[in-house]
Input
Amino acid sequence: MAYDIVPVDLAVKAMRDNGYKNTAYALAELMDNSIQAGAKNVELLCGERSMLVEQRNRSRIDQIAILDDGSGMDADVLRIALQFGNGTRLEPDQATGIGRFGMGLPSASISQCTRVEVWSWTDGIEGALYTYLDLKEITQRRMSQVPEPIAKPIPRIWREIGKGFRNSGTLVVWSNIDRSIWRSARALIENSEFLIGRMYRRFLASDSVRIRMVSFDMETPDRTLQERFALPNDPGYLMPKTSCPEPWSSEAMFQEWGEEGGTGESTILIDFNGKQHPVTLRFSYAKEEARAGRNAGATPHGKHAARNVGVSIVRAGRELDLDKSWTITYDPVERWWGVEIEFPPALDELFGVTNNKQAARNFTELASIDLDQLMKNKSIAQLQEEWAEEQDPKAPLLRIAHRIESNLNVIRRLIKAQSKGKDQSRQRHDDHSPEARGTAATRQRQGEGYRGGSDYDEALPSETRKLQISETLESTGLARPDAELLAASTVDDGLKYIFTQGHLESPAFFSVKPRGGAIIITLNLEHPAYSNLVEVLEKEAEDTGGDELRRRLSKARDGLKLLLEAWARYEDEQPDGKRKSQAQETRVDWGRIARSFLESDD
Output
């Protein structure tokens, strides 16, 4: 008796559970082969049949086909294509395209169905060669080799529904589909379009590949149920003409974010296996207009962005994964930034690309590592050198991970400041607002003979005052239009105090800046008092259901602002010199102590 190291029937059955996330990812493997073969047109054809389900006739997917106009395959290549772990691009020097691992066609197919048939031709469909794999025959040990390809006509139904038949090409047909999570052709296409549009966005945007998606009735193939062409879906939202809903379907919804004012794209050279390889990073964040309105996240484009949260990992122009490991999953603000990392196939081993091309495991693992804690007094280069000495395969990726983390922290702060600025620009100052009440108390003190340093600038021309105030507000992160609007309303309404938010370099909870006759109080977004107190009061006062509780929370929020205004006025009234410096130092010292108290439970 012969004892195979791996019994074929058991191995193939195990491969059915090879980790394809859903049918769309499995179909993408077939599309990879098409694009690798130079196809300009790829078609996803979904045939339905009516069947009795729970005493009712329902349409269910019967067969799925992928048709392309690529270069086609001869008999030898066709047999190799259906072998598990074999292929024509397995050598490192051939790893230049989106295919490579030799698992795609057979592995993806049996993950969804029990029979896959392939026709391929290189000189007209009349000369098409045919072969197949059948899981039932394999498990019954009636099939141990890929059958030798034979000449066989392409079935009429596919010739009728497919429009991509050219002089050369390939048709892959799945039958006995038993693993698809989508039962109807409509559901399959609607769910696949979003993912496929994202995975192949570069090809679609450049019009180098067109992907047609069709559903039809197997009994009446001339009756098309649904037909559409996949649109690019860019998670960085920098592309025009995408699947993003109006008003952002024809123009970019995000803008580039570049380090130190540069462009949104940067390249890092990675030394690997004796050669240097480029890794490109791209960063973006939402335009202010995209976040206009009270709840931008509930808009169609906001919901679209919510489905595209994560770091887009791109290999050879094709997205492998939208990695959510780098995101703060509970924070809806995450939808408003984009990060893309692109690398060549020569770095597959370094990034830990899986054989089904759905993830880059080594890169993903770095998202869970606290690099700041590991670095301490070291530079990222020193840490990378230590990891290399310990032969950690992820060492060359450290610099990339650190760059992403650092830049994301800045972008998140920018988005948060953008949100606060949007709220501030809508402020309405009535007689009961903290700003108005603080101004009234200040006027009373002025009448009693108390004078602050900011009071002298109240005599400046109003336009000069507005300019000084808006420039200061802009320096805290507020967008220029919002800063100008808030400055104008403050001066025109005769108010003394302005609240804004920003990222202060000092440990103080807030800063005090007299400008243009007003006193600007900037709350430190980095201080725990902001998240533990200010943010809670603002959110709860708006969202709480009970009127009485909302009134009390609003009163507490206003009371906090009045207390800060009182301190700001105290500091403003101190004469220039030692006493004013002491007041400012006391504010910073108190902020430092408050931080230690508020963080004591962490």
